[in-house]
Each structure stands twice: as C-alpha cells, then as structure tokens.
Write a structure and sequence with these properties.
Layout lengths: L1 E7 L12 H18 L3 E6 L27 E5 L10 H7 L2 E9 L1 H14 L3 E10 L12 H13 L8 E4 L9
Parallel strand pairs: 1-2, 1-4, 2-3, 4-5, 5-6
Helix pairs in contact: 3-4
C-alpha cells in the first residue's frame, strides 16, 4: 500500500482569491516534488462547471495552476461538487494505485478540502491533512466573523477529531509530511 498526494482545486482562477495563494501554491509544489521523489502518485482534482460560468471547462482559469509545476502528474480528476469523490473516478484511481493514505492539500479549506477529507474517511482511506497546505478565501469567513487563519485552525482542529470507522485523519505541517511509496 502506498500514499498519494491529492491536490484539490489549485486552479489558475483560485490562486488570487485564496489566503496567501502564491505561498500555498509553492508549498504544494514542494509536496508534489517530494511525493514524486518517493515514488508516490500525485492526483490533482479540478473543479469544473457549466459552460459560460467561472468554472467553464474550457476557461483558462480552470486550468491547474502552472505554479504547481505538475509536469509528472498521475491523474487529473474533474469534479462538479465540493466532494472530490462525488460522481468522479477518484476512489477508483486511488484503489488502482493501491493507495491507503492520501495526503490532502488545496482549496478551499471550508468547502472542497473539508468535504474531500470527510469523504475520504468514509471511503476507508486514511488522511494526512496538510495543516498549512490548504486555504479559505482571502478574507476568511466574514459572515462567521473568522479570519482566514481562524478558518484554517478551526478546520484543522475539527477534522483532526473526526471519528470514522474506516480511516483516520492526522494533521501535519508540510515540513513533516513523509511519503511512503
């Protein structure tokens, strides 16, 4: 069994909209290089929507960010919901690679990253959530009165306490992530 890096929605249009997007892209790019060096697969999830919307599949903004340097990616999974597993082949792609643990990073903390982490657990996978490898909107959640830093801290704490019979979830900083091929 192996680990895999799963990168959620790190698309051109998202980088300028999320908290410290450029810094986040650099951190995730370093994780992708580390995964490849270790022989672990890298899968990128790409949010798509209807033609004529911000997530139009043919829009340049929906392309995976060039800042990630993903020249040797194992799979791109297109999704149309917050949960990266919902009506996609992500579970099958991971199973085909004998993945038991996903290292999860990307955007947005309070939407697609949260939903994907929870769904991975329900798919009997272990999750290593990169604690400094996900971000919400640049302004956090103003309706809840939370800064971006508070949104990240909240989700790291809540998800680390999640109880699922299938998998486990640990939160680690990017500097502590080690991939098992």
């Amino acid at each position: 069994m192996t680990d895999a890096l799963v990168i959620v929605d790190m698309q051109e249009l998202m980088i300028p909209l999320v908290w410290r997007g450029e810094e986040l892209a650099g951190r995730i790019a370093a994780l992708a290089r580390a995964a490849k060096r270790a022989g672990a697969p890298v899968l990128a999830v790409q949010q798509i929507g209807a033609r004529g919307t911000a997530f139009d599949p043919d829009s340049p903004g929906t392309r995976l960010s060039a800042r990630l340097g993903l020249d040797r990616i194992d799979a791109v999974v297109r999704k149309s919901a917050t949960d990266s597993f919902y009506r996609t082949d992500l579970a099958a792609s991971l199973a085909a690679r004998d993945v038991r643990t996903i290292v999860l990073a990307g955007v947005a903390t309070d939407y697609c990253v949260d939903a994907t982490a929870r769904s991975a657990l329900s798919h009997d996978l272990n999750v290593v959530l990169v604690g400094d490898g996900h971000a919400p909107a640049a302004n956090g959640d103003p309706e809840a009165g939370l800064t971006a830093e508070q949104v990240i801290a909240h989700h790291n704490r809540v998800l680390s306490k999640a109880i699922h019979p299938g998998g486990t979830l640990r939160v680690l900083p990017a500097s502590h992530v080690v991939f098992s091929p």
